[in-house]
Write a structure and sequence with these properties.
This protein is mainly β. The protein is built from three helices and 38 strands. A hairpin with a 5-residue loop joins β10 and β11. It starts with a helix and ends with a strand.
Length: 558
């Protein structure tokens, strides 16, 4: 079966360099000229997007997860696919080689200027950074620290008509001791360094407390800052304008929850879309639309992305349906027609490389895992530190080698074919649903057998130890006959069935008949990210030869 999939994949690659993946579990395109929100039912927190010609590009916060700064591409703002990442390793390396939950890349802004793509983001502990590329799919430059210091978050540049470059940013109270304040300063024309002092251009005070996530634009002679206020759960969208980049700015609320179930419609990106002919001229001189991409907090699923129409007829960007977020709407009419239905990849056959949906919890180390010539991905067991002497088994919260992806729908089933190779007692591997609470279904070697276990930790972020429940004893499917460090092997199928925040586990030895594996687990978000699912391979003895988990495939279905 695997060889069949490999042949199909090779044929597809010969036909097209860009894979067109269509999800079985969440597709926002209704196929009738309308879409249903969210357009990305996945944790793309703090999204920002731009239009370049007939193409749209989106990036989002990635915090400690690597590769970071995901790049998504679309032709119509509804159908999106992952095309790469702009950040392959976080610095300082010694720090980010281990999980730094909630740190790293906060609220990026993507822009296109003078033939190059730029992404700016704030690391709240280090400063404001930037990378650039001539192609959004990469390669991207090494990060440049534009401003060094703590507390600065959510930066966004604006290149003015006269070539001057300005940067707006917010402030994190957890680091700076202040928030609700937006500042603007001038950068060099190439956007690489600061040449001006910061000025406070807006203070949300009590009326618009927790003003953050600003995006900087210019339209009809006004400088515009669009940003959320009021907090993630109960907030609203602001638009503010001034004749000077340094203000003063007048403001209006342009979108609120009102009587919808879309609470706290939060920060995102205004996108101006123009329909042009082959000569680059606007059709009829004025054929354009405006849209707004923003996130909505879905708890354990993270911050998912909604698309709203924008109406400028009043002189202000009123979002949604007269300021109320919509769930279903017509697709952008200025998008190329027809545009194919495509979604971010979820399933993976692991034929030669990792799919672009996968991330590690820290900087990648080649000993965490590598693709094999046999069309699998091999995860090596990594030493899991304890929580201290006498405190028992440690937790996966400290594990950098978790291979994880975002859930992309409220309900789905993920089935994986795996083969565990263990050289020493205590080595284990399997699947995990990871967050502040987590649960994993693994097989652990004990003597000449494998124990099927559920490893669960409630309060992993508070340094709680995990518990282990043995569900069955399984015989190896193969044994080494070599005298030196022989391994025992077990091939099986592991399944996670997710239904509205609950995760059920099951397993099978033949891929046909599955048995339940413990009680349902209630998913929990991570630190500023949603829960993530994927694979784990760990061990308790740092001196033993490594075992490994070969992942043949994972398939996400209804």
């Amino acid at each position: 079966m695997k060889r069949t999939f490999a042949v199909i994949a090779a044929l597809c690659a010969a036909v097209s360099l860009t894979a067109q993946y269509r999800s079985e579990v969440w597709c926002p395109d209704n196929g009738d000229g309308t879409y249903t929100n969210p357009v990305l039912y996945a944790d793309y927190s703090d999204p920002d997007a731009i239009c370049v010609g007939d193409d749209f590009y989106l990036t989002a916060s990635s915090f400690n997860c690597i590769p970071g700064l995901p790049i998504l591409h679309s032709k119509d703002l509804v159908n999106w696919q992952i095309i790469g990442h702009a950040l392959q390793e976080q610095q300082p390396k010694a720090l980010f080689d281990m999980p730094q939950h909630g740190k790293g890349v906060w609220a990026p802004a993507i822009r296109h200027h003078d033939g190059e793509f730029y992404i700016y983001w704030g690391d709240p502990d280090q400063g404001i950074f930037m990378v650039k590329a001539t192609d959004a799919a990469g390669p991207w430059s090494e990060p440049v620290c534009v401003i060094s210091g703590s507390g600065m978050i959510d930066p966004c540049p604006l290149w003015d008509d006269d070539g001057h470059c300005y940067l707006v940013n917010a402030w994190a109270a957890s680091r700076a001791g202040l928030n609700s304040v937006l500042t603007v300063r001038e950068l060099s024309a190439d956007g690489m360094r600061v040449i001006g002092q910061p000025r406070i251009v807006f203070d949300g005070g009590q009326v618009n407390h927790t003003t953050e996530g600003p995006k900087f634009y210019k339209r009809d002679g006004y400088y515009w800052i669009m940003c959320p206020a009021g907090g993630v759960a109960m907030g609203w969208q602001l638009a503010m304008r001034s004749r000077s980049p340094y203000g003063p700015y007048e403001w209006k609320r342009v979108m609120e929850q009102k009587d919808t179930d879309i609470n706290g419609p939060h920060q995102g990106a205004w996108v101006h879309v123009e329909m042009r002919n082959e000569k680059g001229e606007m059709r009829n001189g004025a054929d354009a639309e405006d849209w707004f991409l923003h996130f909505n907090d879905k708890g354990a699923y993270g911050r998912v992305v909604y698309l709203q129409p924008v109406d400028w007829s009043s002189g202000w960007p009123v979002m949604g349906d007269k300021g109320k977020p919509v769930t279903k709407w017509r697709k952008p009419t200025t998008a190329p027609s027809p545009s194919s239905i495509v979604n971010p990849q979820e399933s993976d056959e692991f034929n030669g490389q990792l799919g672009l949906q996968w991330q590690w919890h820290a900087n990648y180390n080649q000993l965490y895992g590598m693709p094999t010539a046999d069309g699998t991905f091999r995860l090596y067991t990594n030493h899991l530190p304890s929580l201290g002497e006498g405190s028992g088994v440690g937790s996966l919260w400290q594990a950098p080698n978790l291979l994880l992806q975002k859930p992309t729908a409220p309900r789905f089933t993920a089935t994986a074919k795996v083969r565990m190779a263990s050289k020493e007692d205590g080595q284990y591997g399997g699947v995990v649903m990871m967050g502040r609470d987590y649960s994993a279904l693994v097989v652990l070697r004990q003597g000449d057998a494998f124990l099927l276990q559920r490893h669960t930790c409630l309060g992993a972020d508070e340094h709680q130890a995990e518990t282990r429940q043995t569900l069955a004893t399984l015989k190896p499917t193969e044994r080494d006959t070599i005298p030196y460090s022989p391994a025992v092997y077990l091939e099986l199928y592991l399944r996670m069935t997710v239904r509205d925040g609950l995760c059920d586990y099951s397993y099978s030895l033949d891929g046909k008949h599955f048995k339940g594996a413990g009680d349902p687990f209630t998913m929990k978000e991570g630190k500023w990210i949603g829960a993530k699912f994927g694979f784990v391979a760990e061990c308790s003895d740092r001196t033993a030869n490594r075992g490994w988990l070969d992942v043949d495939w994972i398939r996400v279905t209804k």
